[in-house]
Amino acid sequence: MSAKAKKEPEDIVHLALGDLSPYQILINVSCCLIYVPVAWQMICMNFLGPKSEFTCLDSNAIDECNVLNLENNRTTFCQNFEHDKSYWSLTVRQKWDLVCENDKWYNWLNSIFMSGVAVGVIGFGVISDRFGRKITSIIGLTIQITATLAAAFTHSFGLWVTLRWIAMASSMSILTVRYVLGVEFLSGKNRAFIGVGFLTAFPIGIIVFPIIANFLRNSFHLQLIMGLVNIPLLISVFFVPESPR
Known about the structure:
A two-stranded antiparallel sheet has the order 1-4. It is mainly α. The protein is elongated and about 85 Å long. The protein has helices at about 5, 10-15, 20-30, 35-45, 45-50, 90-95, 105, 110-130, 135-155, 155-185, 190-200, 200-215, 220-230, 230-235; strands at about 55, 65-70, 75, 80-85. The chain has a single domain, classed as Growth Hormone, Chain: A, CATH 1.20.1250.20. It is built from 14 helices and 4 strands. About 65% of the residues lie in helices and about 5% in strands.
């Protein structure tokens, strides 16, 4: 077999796109920025529901969680609480009294939300392969924005959990789809370098969100920012072409 026959076939996408250009860098920066709000979604529960001091408001309370029933001389769980809002003005724990025996529901939340991540990555991956990266990014960001903002306004704990699950499912899937969309505009020799650059945005998000939370100290306002920050990113998707691959 001749040397010519053994030569690897050329990447026709690389031939069409050429080497790394400012336009390709701009596309990848646009895709990379989604890592920041996705990092916020991943760590937000540490700041949406931090613990704070509380007291029981029921009559005959013997501590923060228990009340003495004078009729049978037995203790029952407290039903009404007053939360210390000197530092955190509003948290998920405060809003739905997720303390004492109700604290178990809060402990399950991260597991529930991680199941949303697993479903989203698989589901949106199939959708992006079938219908394209761009349209999947638009759908995913729209769902994430809607679910995050709606969760901020709901007064139902069950509905809030459902909306947060949807937001988490769309968040990680958007990250995956946007990463693939960005690197598919690059030739093989540039993918590794730019791909590593994508990962720098995630720790930036992890660093920035606690700073924002320290200033706001309010779960409602934090969720508003988590949703609204994605609107410019959604708009930017319309200016990014579909993947050439």
